[in-house]
Amino acid sequence: MKKTIALVTGGFTGESVISLKSAAVIGRNLDPEKFDVYKIIITPESWYYEDENGGKYEINKNDFSLALNGAVVRFDCVFIGLHGSPGEDGKLQGYFDMLNIPYTTCDALTSAITMNKGYTKAIVQDILELHVAKSIQLFSNSGDNVARINENLRFPLFVKPNNGGSSIGMSKVKTEAELPEALAKAFKEDSQVLVEEFISGREFTIGIYRGAQGIGVLPATEIVSSKEFFDFEAKYTTGVTEEITPGRMTPEEKQSVEKIARLVFEKLNCKGITRMDYILEEGTGNLYFIEINTVPGQTENSLIPQQVRATGRTIQDFYTELIEAALYIKK
């Protein structure tokens, strides 16, 4: 019997445009033989289903049901394709937990913690063979921030919103004079800002997921950007970045990275599909953890679909496994 799936997209942040693009790809790749799919768009104003004719039908938030054509649609599982708040920070997960509806991402606690880059680094930093860049977490754009940064960190630096995604509001800073503008840009996106030392090396990202056979690791992608760092334009503009999947690593590096990726996934109690960004430091080969994304992009330019295809699997089969794992875990 087919399962009824709510594909949730939209959101409350600047990442909503990416969420809608991700949902379009996910929707095209959910098996129509196994699933009846309803795309649910969440905005600050309303939660609604939009049919193919443009008709909009409001979701009943009391039980996340949908009144449609004289019947009530209830969902067996939610495929969360919403980046940023409220789909990646634990808010929706907590809501669905209260309604006892399974979903395809990490739970509410893990989602909330991993949305905060500083807190995540504090949790994973004691994992063997994993390194984190020296950093400072700022909670207000106060006048003494520049002096504090100068005293504790070495340039160049990355300044980024602590709870943001898609590299929105992020800057690379080479001198003290550039700090005020970078801090203002980051604080415009978030009330917390992370300032961390730049690590010179090769940048990678790797998908880790919980499927039918437990934790699985996808082939890593090496990021070679024509931009100075992997910013919003580099992530979502075709041709700006070269993405090499599988990434160029020695067998020893590959084995070490996959082991660390599994440990990070377990330490943070992750579920669904996640993507860990990391740097292999120049000269040492040390793995420096950047962040983990619990609702990674699924657009045509996104990295997880590339990594799935590199395994020889179809995206459709992979999404089916994620849904079936979510339904199994909820039992």
Characterise the protein shown here:
The protein has 331 residues and is of the alpha+beta class. The protein starts with a strand and ends with a helix. Helix 2 (91-99) packs antiparallel against helix 3 (108-114). A 7-stranded mixed beta sheet has the order 6-5-4-3-2-1-7. Strands 8, 13, 14, 15, 16, 17 and 18 form a 7-stranded mixed beta sheet that branches. The protein has a 4-stranded antiparallel beta sheet with strand order 9-12-10-11. The model has no long low-confidence stretch (mean pLDDT 92). A hairpin with a 4-residue loop joins strand 4 (56-60) and strand 5 (65-68). It has helices spanning 16-28, 91-99, 108-114, 117-124, 145-152, 179-189, 232-236, 251-267, 303-310, 315-330, and strands at 3-10, 35-42, 47-50, 56-60, 65-68, 71-73, 77-80, 130-132, 135-138, 157-161, 171-173, 193-197, 201-211, 214-217, 221-225, 241-244, 273-281, 287-293.
Short description:
This protein has 331 residues and is an alpha+beta fold. It has ten helices and 18 strands.
Largest sheet: 7 strands, mixed
User: Given the structure, what is the number of helices?
Assistant: 10
Indicate the CATH topology of the domain at 3-105: Rossmann fold
Mean pLDDT across residues:
92
Strand content: 25-35%
Indicate the radius of gyration in whole angstroms: 20 Å
According to DSSP, the number of beta strands is 18
Q: What is the helical fraction, as a range of percent? A: 25-40%
- Which CATH architecture of the domain at 3-105? 3-Layer(aba) Sandwich
Distance between the termini: 17 Å
Report the structural category: alpha+beta
Low-confidence stretches: none
Briefly, what CATH class of the domain at 3-105? Alpha Beta
| Shape estimate | globular
- The ordered H/E elements are EHEEEEEEHHHEEHEEHEEEEHEHEEHH
How are the strands ordered across the major sheet? 6-5-4-3-2-1-7
